[in-house]
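Appendix B: complex inputs.
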Amino acid sequence: MSSQAPAPQSSVPPLKDYASIVGQPEIDELWTLAKSLQNRTVKMVNSTAVGGGVAEILNRAVPLFNEVGLPTQWDVITGGDAFFSVTKAFHNALHGMAYDDRPHWFDVFLATNEENRRRMTFDENFVVIHDPQPLPLVEARTGKNNHWVWRCHIDLSQPNERVWEFLRPFVEKFDVSIFSSAAFTHALPIPQYLIAPTIDPLADKNRELEPEFVSSVVQKFGIDASRPIVSQISRFDRLKDPLGVIQAYKMVKKYQDCQLILAGGGASDDPEGSVVYAEVQEAAKGDSDIFLLNLPPWSHLEINALQRASTIVVQKSLREGFGLTVTEALWKKKPVVASAVGGIFRQVLHKVTGMLVHSVEGCAYQIRYLLSNPALAKRLGETGHEHVKENFLITHTLKNYMLLFWLLERNRQ
Amino acid sequence: MKQAQDPFQFVTASYLVCIGHDRPTTLRDLSQSIARVSDASIFCHTFHSLSTYHYTSYSSDFAQWAMAACNEQELAERLGAIDVRQFVAIEDLRSALLHTIDSYLHAQPRSSDRPAFEPFFFSETREITLPLEMRASNLAELSEGIGRLSLQSLHYHFVNSRLRLHLRTNDFSHWIEKELDFPELAARIARVDFYTNTLQGVRDGILECIRPWINR
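Resulting structure:
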């Protein structure tokens, strides 16, 4: 039995390689759309190059934009620990969590953005700013005739008012905004488009793996592949509720044998990760069937293998943007038990593509139910795979952005 | 093989959803919103949802909401039974939706103001069409082109067409009857059921209808 790891990808596959998954007609239509936008330039701006769903999408989408003839530049804003502590606090506050206001925070936020604005240029036809961290860069549009798009990946439906009122004037300077779900939006004077985030089926994190490699990864971490495995793959973040997952696992364990994997890494814009990881370690202490795996950001093949080795994948988030880890699990035909929050609603259609839950108790119950009903679990996984194929693959990102750019140009004519 | 004078022009059709501000939380509010929202919004939650959510119990967003968010099974069934094939104008479809909801609420007044579990988020579709470099002058070319369409574009030619043509037919049947004078084939294609099929199943059904006619 070979346990050799597949070679990590050195580059994004060309668009033609996706035809085997989405069909040649879809690829042909992407080229038709791209032709109508030939040589328009695009800039994408976000706050981290690695870790988190936004960076993952951009890593895959930007080369594809370039391939179809839309030269696309991806810039990452820089900032110190103070800036990223502020943006993390903003992120939580916009999700409706508690916000401990510090007088200098707004100044830190504005000053860092101003430094970035001075070193960057914004001469492209379309500038897409991702999430709140780089919002003030929109001030650079003064005197330019290009199109500015704010891509909001988070749930803005119940934001902390103080933070939102501070950020709102920047948002209102964009031409349009994009949200992952209609339920995430907030009343705005600019149009709000619905575009779901996506995964790349050919990326190391999602591509097919040899069963031998999957087994070798499971063995490497000391996990018993012959017993049921429940996993949550997420960064160690309070909003992902890793402590709630451990509670649910302990309830399941009273009646059914299983192991729990909590695997994830940190993002460079999340300074809270190590604190949460320590709390999770404390809660898992003494149980040799709980595996805490704090993986570096390049562990895509290992994460893929862990998801494929899982019997059930859990995403017990308290708040969620879209929840791309759910998309990944569905793509791998896994039965998913997930909180009914954020964009998970769009992916997990209750009892059709997975199970939606609202509490630790509900999560434990559905895990037990699916462990006892493998035929149902299999059917949910298969429907989930089709749901992702039709709606949440990287080719949809390419198409939807091109449609939006096309509309923006047409509306200005 | 019979040749058409005017070739069939295939197009690529795509849709972006623009999120609206109307967010009713009761059936009474839903009815009022349906009465005032744009045609693009009614289209989004009926014709467009038909191509998007074939996994759920109902392909109409209104029916799905009545069932999942309002727990009104009977109304959901009635809304789900409204067949978009019967409509060649959005206004008529809007009237049918309103009639169904209002008559139900008249009989079940306590359902009017019961809060739903979640709001109904009205949205609108923006349709973007571009001509493809594909034309058909006979049935063989039409068949080949249909096989090369994306599912959304197939939906555009086969389902949404009736709103453009203002006829209870589809682009393929319309062209076959007008250009090739095969009314029987046109009628057979128009009977392919897109409610009980996936779009791939619809494509297969259309191609199966055309195959025996190709050499006539």
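Chain A has a mean pLDDT of 92.
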